[in-house]
Amino acid sequence: MNWTLFQPELYYFMVVMVFLTVSMLNSVSVKTNYYTALISAVIGVAVCTMSLRVNGTLFYNTYRVDLYSQLFKLMLAVGMFLVISVCNKLKSVDDSRHPEFYLLVATATLAMMMLTSAVHLLTIYICLELSSYSLYILVFLRKDQETGVNTALKYFLTGASASAVMLFGFALVYGKFPSIYLADLVESIPRFIDQPSVSIGMLLMLCGFFFKLGVFPFHFWLPDTYEGSANETTTFIATVSKVAAIAIMIRMVALIGGNSVYLIKVLIGISVITMTLGNLCAIAQQDLKRLLAYSSIAHAGYVLLGILCMSPNGYTGAVFYAVTILLLKFTCFMVVISISKKGESPSVDQLAGLHRRSPLLALALMLALFGLAGIPPTIGFSGKLLIFTAAMNNGYFLLVFIAMVNVVISLYYYLLVLKAAYLKEPVDDIQPLHVPFPQKVLTTALIITIVTIGIFPTYLIDLADAAVKYLM
Amino acid sequence: MTIHSIIFYLLSSVVIVSTGIAVTRRDLVHAVVYLIFTFFGTAMIFYLLGAPLLAALEVIIYAGAIMVLFLFIIMMIRTEPSTAPLIPPGQWWPVIGFCLLYITAGFLFMYQEPDFWVFLTPAMATPGAFGRFLFQTHWLSIEIISLLLLIAVIGALVLGKPAGKKPNKTNGNRI
Predict the structure, then answer these.
(1) What residues have CB less than 8 Å from A39, skipping those under 6 apart?
(2) Which of A231, A351, A352, B106 has the most crowded CB, counting CB atoms within 10 A?
(3) Does residue B173 carry a pLDDT above 50?
(4) Buried b (16+ CB within 10 A) or exposed e, A69-100
(5) Do A140 and B105 touch (CB under 8 A)?
(6) DSSP letters of A49-62?
(7) Percent of all residues in chain A with a pLDDT value above 70, rounded to a whole number
């Protein structure tokens, strides 16, 4: 067996073990914890970059390493680095719980990395469970015990029911086909796709991933979890776990093969409901994290629109959109963490006067929100353009029209947030926000990345294109 | 219809009915006892399908150990049976909707699926073969499960012990 293929996972497993040890020690300071986590995340990004171009299968063909999985692993590693980089205060988690926090972040990342590579239904299910359980406990770690317990329990119950539904779908598909290696399923499923056992099985199977992504019938947990968990945990859920969900969704939908009659209609319906519901609910939100949660739901709808095209272009768009969500949502949440004084969830009004308190953060927030709305010189525009063109090529004109209407609706509440940040006068304190130097560098880098990829997206599109080729 | 199929349908109806009763009981002790029936029924189904090891594990671990633990916990925390309605009035629509959805799916299976009416034939997976298959082909999954258990232990510790209270070293009595 070629262990070099398994490098990123082994590395992250090592990180898990390091934090397991640290959590058992008594006298490790908050700073040491933070820097250990940060350094290990940086090395993790390097390890994932090095193994970007490796190729092969492992563990009796249950695990495939190719450009598709490695690209997503790199995204996950970058996501984990970004999340850890804003954990320098970690105000809403008790100091004695910091090693556990980093440990769970590392396990969740590890599980999601394995999820992108798993090509056997059993392995996929177990990886998904590992990542979900890490997230449940992460949500619970909030200092304010009552909120933490409530939120974590709600999240856990929704997650457990979604995973039961998914398991039922697995069982139906397993009953129909003798082998549940994705490599075999990709050949046998398209031939039987219009039989009830296969189409219902596939749909129920997708439900588990719908839950992760926050798609319509399984979106209830999202606003509550975002609001109720620590800001840093929310950042992790909104960025890294969404990337993993998109990765596995594309892999599963690619199994259907593109000639299904019923399933595609269901997916279209779900996508339309998801984006409309997300955008309409977001308008009414006063809490910034809840607003971002509903915008996450809307974005899940857009991603689904790209995925349901079931064409290489659509998948490329979805992969590109994963990068978009990672960068833009992270930038928004970085601002959320910065303006929250004691780790509470800030309201939209709390942004008042941000352009004077910290012009850099205000600029970053503006670009990120423009990106989420899909306004040109940002990465968000390229992502939406790719997805909408793919849908147009497939002849879903009405669907693209509905999505465009949704984009206009979303512009309204993004601009409300911007209005609060730029035009509203703060009520009491106007002392400048203290932004440490490393965070300034990070923010500048994010701004540059968001704009640069927005103007020159070709390299990333080519990479996504090459990655998607491994799915077929 | 083979004798296997008849036993299978009998057992499955026992499982479904007892699970239904377990879910609707308001007294937790009753619910747990009905759940034990469910696990016994599942174990029998496993045995019928030719997986004696799983059947034994189901009885020993689930019906035996875990349910007894549940009973202990329920008796220790002494919960009163709740008097609130099982399904609050506002939640009837989603319940009915989901039931209809699943019933439709069930009928689709019965009438649209070409090889729906197959009969159960005896099969056998010896514990040795089963174990070899699991630990050889799927050992990655086994390892991931071990990580999952680790996370579960950490979760239980975090849930059980309030944060910020470290054991006081100075007051510790040395014996």
Answers:
(1) none
(2) A231
(3) no
(4) bbbbbbbbbbbbbbbbbbbbbbbbbbebbbbb
(5) no
(6) HHTTT--EEETTTT
(7) 100
Helix H or strand E encompassing A65: strand A63-65
Six token digits for residue A365: 């927030």
A242 within 8 A of A213, measured Cβ to Cβ: yes
pLDDT mean over A336-359: 85
Which residues on B lie below 8 Å from A123 (Cβ)? 138, 140-141, 144
* A389-398 long-range contacts, CB within 8 A, separation 24+: A389/A313, A389/A317, A390/A306, A390/A309, A390/A311, A390/A313, A390/A314, A390/A316, A390/A317, A391/A305, A391/A306, A391/A309, A391/A314, A393/A309, A393/A311, A393/A313, A394/A309, A394/A311, A394/A314, A396/A268, A396/A305, A396/A309
**Cβ-count burial of B153 within 10 angstroms (0-12 exposed, 13-18 middle, 19+ buried)?**
exposed
Nearest CA in chain A to B107: A196
B109–A contact, CB cutoff 8 A: yes
Domain layout of chain A by residue ranges: 3-469
Q: Please, which pLDDT band fits residue A39 given cuts at 50, 70 and 90?
A: very high
**DSSP label at residue A4:** G
Is A97–B162 a contact, with Cβ atoms under 8 angstroms apart?
no
Element spanning A18, H or E? helix A7-24
Task: Say whether B158 and A96 touch across the interface (CB within 8 A).
Answer: no
How large is the ipTM?
0.88
List Cα–Cα distances, A313 to A78, A377, A436, A466, B133, in angstroms: 24, 22, 41, 11, 39
Instruction: State whether residue B155 sits within 8 Å of chain A by CB.
Output: yes
Q: What is the three-class DSSP state of A19?
A: helix
Q: Tell me if A200 and B137 make a contact (CB, 8 A cut-off).
A: no
Report yes or no: B124 at the A interface, CB cutoff 8 Å.
no
What is the rounded distance in angstroms from the CA atom of residue A118 to the CA atom of residue A96? 35
Chain A segment 76-115 residues within 8 A of B by beta carbon are 94-97, 100, 103-104, 107, 110-111, 114
Q: Does B168 lie at the interface with A, CB-CB under 8 angstroms?
A: no
What's the gap in Å between the CA of A191 and the closest CA on chain B? 14
* Entry pTM: 0.91
> In this complex, is the C-beta atom of A269 within 8 Å of any C-beta atom belonging to chain B?
no
Look at residue B170 in the predicted model and tell me its pLDDT. Answer: 47
Question: Chain B closest CA to A134's CA: distance in Å?
Answer: 7
A214: left (phi over 0), alpha (psi -120 to 50) or beta: left
C-alpha–C-alpha distance, residues A358 and A426, integer Å: 13
Q: Which residues of chain A have a CB within 8 Å of the CB of B159?
A: 137, 140
**Is the CB of A26 inside 8 Å of chain B's CB atoms?**
yes
pLDDT over threshold 80, residue A472? no
Q: How far apart are CA A113 and CA A280, in angstroms?
A: 33
